[in-house]
Design goal:
Number of domains: 2
Distance between the termini: 21 Å
Strand order of the largest sheet: 4-7-6-5
Number of strands: 7
Strand content: 25-35%
Largest sheet: 4 strands, mixed
Length: 142
Amino acid sequence: MLTLEDLGVLRSVEEYDDRVVVTITPTYSGCPAMATMRDDLVHRLADAGFEAEVRVSLSPAWSSDWITPAGRESLARHGISPPGAAPTGPVGLSLLPTRRVLGCPRCGSSEVELTSEFGPTACKAMYRCTACLEPFEHVKEI
């Protein structure tokens, strides 16, 4: 559905003869998918005949702006609302839900409502389209 490159977590790939060093950045510190991403990279590279080392880099911090246009299209095609532009400059502290401008990935309507700021993973929020009534996940802007 989505490559690590399209998600923007693949930071670098360095090849040394039959050894590859890959650096990835989590979407969030403590992202539970990091172990799976690392294991998948090691297995795929081993299947291709490479010894793999996967490094995790927390700096610079991942930004939803790193998701490629192809990645955004794939998210929408699979019913997940892609993030808008990440905020720039100072961000005020608010305990209210984040106001986002987004559309339903199924019908395209902008008539959506937040049902939970907390989705199945820390990087997603849950919404419901009031036009087609379908629930959907939205990748949060970071």
